[in-house]
Amino acid sequence: MATAELAGKHLVLGMTGGIACYKIAELTRLLTKAGVTVQVVMTEAATQFITPVTMQALSGRPVYTSQWDARIANNMAHIDLSREADAIVIAPASTDFLAKLAHGMADDLLATLCVARDCPLLVVPAMNRQMWQNPATQRNVAQLRADGIEVLGPDSGPQACGEIGDGRMLEAGATYEAIASFFAPKILSGRRVLLTAGPTFEPLDPVRGITNRSSGKMGFALARAAQQAGAEVHLVAGPVALETPWGVLREDVQTAQQMHDAVMRSVAEADIFIGVAAVADWRVDHASEHKIKKTADRALPTFSFVENPDILASVAKLPHPPFTVGFAAESVDLEMHGEQKRVRKNVPLLIGNLGPLTFGMDDNEVVLFEASGSTRLPRADKQTLARALIAEIAKRLPDTSLIR
Ligand code: C5P
């Protein structure tokens, strides 16, 4: 979980009545761990599901529930609580509260805070599927969107009532991601990004194969940063044990050939291609159909290899390539090999790191190679670095009007 992106932000976290209140304990923990000041305000109904004591302990601040709370000096909690806030997040947002918001009602502290706010408002609906589908709710949600209120979710799936459908609140982790995404500058808005990430796996037989130690962390971090920057993101991933970043379309592949084919199928729609995967250079000519057995005379198996397609070079060679970015992991002489590789692969931008030392690690230091020279970025964790790299890529894009 990235932290720096929300550090220093101040949120009013408004809780309304619903069983999904239990998710807000975890959300509060994630937000405070990321350096966010969380001011919890609860409706009377919310306090039936989880206590203000729990929420105070998790947020580290007193919880407000009443419009008549005299703890704020001027007795104006409904004004003052939102004045320091970067946003108000209503989670869970009940059917009733969405209706109130849509009509500008102000009959309790939280509703009044929302009407009196001068900051963005995000709502995270949580309700039974029939309540969500009810035409009145849908009318209210459309009105909220038209009023510039951000609606996060809802999710689909099993519900506390035992029914299955739309209306579940996003999980705490997904809510965190959606909030982080809301605050990220939309420097790739309207752009489509295609990425490869992770290792490839080249089978020798049905149970064995050749792979490498790429964890996929850098590629997944870039996919997440591009999504947060407003891009539509398609991630072609080799075998990795990582969660799909929120809002990203993921396609899983095993071999370099499959990765190549997946990229070639989608590249025509992409404005940007980033090849982060550590693609195997060779594969076994004919993988054995059955598990290779030890023989009585202990003869060693022999394999012949053929070269895999170079995905990055194939993309760069297209008649109308997207803005194409390569990665290079070098163990020595990065400065020299980086620029040589950029020219050889014919890409405008190549990002070099001193891997494979960085494989699997959480931080990294990279150098950008381009025709005009090289630029070193400061060492940082991969999420921070991914945001910096997306900003660097965005700066170098041709004007949208000039894009194919
Ligand atoms: O040649 P090398 O593997 O060092 O090049 C690294 C860059 O080329 C990375 O961007 C990687 O994703 C890409 N690549 C590729 N297909 C290959 C080999 C590398 O797309 N077969």
TrEMBL record:
Keywords: Decarboxylase, Flavoprotein, FMN, Ligase, Lyase, Magnesium, Metal-binding, Multifunctional enzyme. Its cofactor is FMN; Mg(2+). In the C-terminal section; belongs to the PPC synthetase family. In the N-terminal section; belongs to the HFCD (homo-oligomeric flavin containing Cys decarboxylase) superfamily. GO terms for biological process: coenzyme A biosynthetic process; pantothenate catabolic process. It comes from Paraburkholderia rhynchosiae. PANTHER family: HOMO-OLIGOMERIC FLAVIN CONTAINING CYS DECARBOXYLASE FAMILY, PHOSPHOPANTOTHENOYLCYSTEINE DECARBOXYLASE. This is Coenzyme A biosynthesis bifunctional protein CoaBC. One of its GO terms (cellular component) is phosphopantothenoylcysteine decarboxylase complex. The keyword Nucleotide-binding does not apply. Pathway: Cofactor biosynthesis; coenzyme A biosynthesis; CoA from (R)-pantothenate: step 2/5; Cofactor biosynthesis; coenzyme A biosynthesis; CoA from (R)-pantothenate: step 3/5. One of its GO terms (molecular function) is FMN binding. CTP binds at D281, K291, P309, D310, I311, L312, F327, K341, K345. Pfam families: DFP, Flavoprotein.
